[in-house]
Write a sequence for this structure.
């Protein structure tokens, strides 16, 4: 592909590229097959990031996260190879607060078992970096990657490197006095990983389906559009369609609210993990025998001793294990309710593949049930339940990203229709159907009901 071609593709706005709306002619450009290697490469990167998150969770759950007490970004790639390397590392570990306060009974063999988790986590991080960098150079040299994709991958590399630094900042917080990492830093590290994953999955979807809407412009919900929506109708595959902008607005924005709540819930999950609050109150729905056992909060116990009233200040809602667990439980329930409602709405009303909504609904409901199981069983099997619940959170985030992408796409498609029918400027339905066919999402064109 020559530079001109690359530029042409760069200015394309997805499926529009295959149809010239003015003339109605097809350009013959099948973007799906042109970009397939890049799509596959990005899917593997997304998988590797998800694996990184899982190995990071295992590192924490097995108590291995503080076993390597130094940060050597380049030379640290090599594991200890000789007995003297091992002794050297073990000696360093022996001067750490974790060894001195919790693991004094550790022999070299026990140290090795926690070392490998942390080493694997760091090693995998480097491997992801290489796996992003080298194919990028290759695609770039062959001029087979569009400029916008290039920019995304470079951003991924830069933020991935930053994530390595944040990881070290987190570990460093557990190497002073108390052998526990700051739960705020742990949350930052986890949320950054999730941001990278979401960014990669979104890019995969854009590479696969195109970046923008169909039609001349993607109008935002406005009075004009609302008028157009209520007045207009058009046909798809010979069936009359009625476009109702207001309900499309609800689904996309409902998902945005859901995503905001999910981000808060993931952050609180990291707080629960970092404060080891999962070991408290293995009961559901009540915490022990109360709904909110304020008296169990350390600060309230102190207040009771001095006869003062207990005052759970705002700061404590992110720092006290009891309050943090309380928020995580009930925010989880709210998310489950909203998620199942949105999945139902999407599956029955949205012009997008039903499988997307079924997967989204299953992920949100499954994660809620898994959360309760984790709460009840964490004390007896922390690694198994902790890892499964964390993997469930990752799947839910991916399912939400995909659902939001499809809902926005369906909205853009309907908006193009609605505006065009009102103003007589947009391509007709048959042309839009053709535009969609090459990117494989026939649901847009064939679903009768419109969200
Ligand atoms: C429904 C949405 C939910 C999401 C997205 C979610 C997400 C998370 C995340 C990301 C973590 C941290 C995992 C880690 O860093 O390894 C976590 C931890 C935890 N969550 Fe949830 N959670 C949800 C619901 C619940 C519910 C309803 C409960 C209990 C009733 C619960 C109980 C726990 C417990 C006990 C932990 C600590 C596990 C550990 O220390 O590894 N979660 N959650």
């Amino acid at each position: 592909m020559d530079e001109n071609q690359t530029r042409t593709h760069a200015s394309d706005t997805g499926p529009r590229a295959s149809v010239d709306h003015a003339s109605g002619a097809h350009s013959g450009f099948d973007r799906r097959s042109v970009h397939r290697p890049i799509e596959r490469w990005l899917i593997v990167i997304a998988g590797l990031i998800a694996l990184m998150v899982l190995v990071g969770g295992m590192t924490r759950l097995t108590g291995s996260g503080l076993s390597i007490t130094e940060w050597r970004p380049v030379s640290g790639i090599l594991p200890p190879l000789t007995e003297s390397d091992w002794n050297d590392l073990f000696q360093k570990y022996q001067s750490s607060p974790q060894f001195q306060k919790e693991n004094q009974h550790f022999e070299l063999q026990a140290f090795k078992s926690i070392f490998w988790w942390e080493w694997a986590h760091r090693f995998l991080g480097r491997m992801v970096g290489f796996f992003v960098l080298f194919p990028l150079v290759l695609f770039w040299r062959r001029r087979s990657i569009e400029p916008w994709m290039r920019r995304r991958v470079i951003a991924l590399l830069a933020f991935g490197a930053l994530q390595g630094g944040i990881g070290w900042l987190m570990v460093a917080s557990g190497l002073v006095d108390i052998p526990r990492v700051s739960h705020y830093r742990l949350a930052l590290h986890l949320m950054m990983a999730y941001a990278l994953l979401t960014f990669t999955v979104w890019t995969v979807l854009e590479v696969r389906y195109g970046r923008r809407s169909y039609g001349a412009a993607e109008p935002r919900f406005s009075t004009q559009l609302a008028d157009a929506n209520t007045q207009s109708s058009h046909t798809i595959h010979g069936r009359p369609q009625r476009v109702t902008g207001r309900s499309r607005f609800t689904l996309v924005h409902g998902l945005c609210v859901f995503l905001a709540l999910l981000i808060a819930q993931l952050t609180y999950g990291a707080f629960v993990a970092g404060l080891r609050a999962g070991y408290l109150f293995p009961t559901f729905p009540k915490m022990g025998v109360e709904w909110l056992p304020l008296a169990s909060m350390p600060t309230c116990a102190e207040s009771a001793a001095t006869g003062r009233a207990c005052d759970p200040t705002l700061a404590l809602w992110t720092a006290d294990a009891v309050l943090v667990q309380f928020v995580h439980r009930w925010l989880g329930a709210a998310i489950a309710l909203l998620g199942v409602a949105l999945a139902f709405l999407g599956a029955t009303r949205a012009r997008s593949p039903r499988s997307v909504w079924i997967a989204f609904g299953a992920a949100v409901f499954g994660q809620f049930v898994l959360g309760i199981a984790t709460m009840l069983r964490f004390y007896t099997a922390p690694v198994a339940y902790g890892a499964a619940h964390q993997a469930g959170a990752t799947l839910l985030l991916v399912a939400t990203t995909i659902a939001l992408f499809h809902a926005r796409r369906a909205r853009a498609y309907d908006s193009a229709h609605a505006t065009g029918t009102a103003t007589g400027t947009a391509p007709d339905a048959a042309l839009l159907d053709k535009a969609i066919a090459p990117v494989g999402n026939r649901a847009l064109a064939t679903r009768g009901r419109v969200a």
The mean pLDDT is 82. The CA atoms of residues 41 and 135 lie 8 Å apart. DSSP finds 17 helices and four strands in the chain.
